[in-house]
Amino acid sequence: MSVKFPKKEKLKNKKLIEVLFKEGKSLSSFPLKLIYLKVESPMDAKFKTGVAVPKKNFKSAVKRNRIKRLVRESYRLNKHLVFNNSEGNFAFLILYLGKEMPNYLGVEKEMQLILKKFLKKIDDAKVD
Prior knowledge:
Blueprint: H1 14-23, E1 25-29, E2 32-39, E3 47-52, H2 61-78, H3 80-83, E4 89-96, H4 104-127
Helix pairs in contact: 2-4
C-alpha cells in the first residue's frame, strides 16, 4: 500500500485557516499541537492538513522547512490512524512548538500520540 499526501489533502485556503485559529479546538503533545475543526461543507478530501513552524522559535528558513518536512512525513505515514476511524470532514493544522531541532523518531512518536488523542476526543464527542 502506498501512502500519499496529495495536493487535495493540503490546507491552503486562507479563510479556512483563519476560521481554524478562531474556532478550532486544540490538542497538545509537546512539541506538537494539533488544531482541528469539523468542516461542514463537502471537501474533495476527508482531511485538509497544514503544518506550521513559528518564525519566532526558528529564525532560519532552512531549519523551519526541515521541521515541516519531518512533521509532514510523520503525518503521511500515520494518517491511516484517523482516516479509517473517523466520520466527517476535518481541517487540521499541526504546529511545531519546540525550541530545538527535532529528530524524526521523536516527531513520529508525538504524531501518533496526538492522532490517537484526536480520535479519543471525537469518539467522546460522539457519545455526548
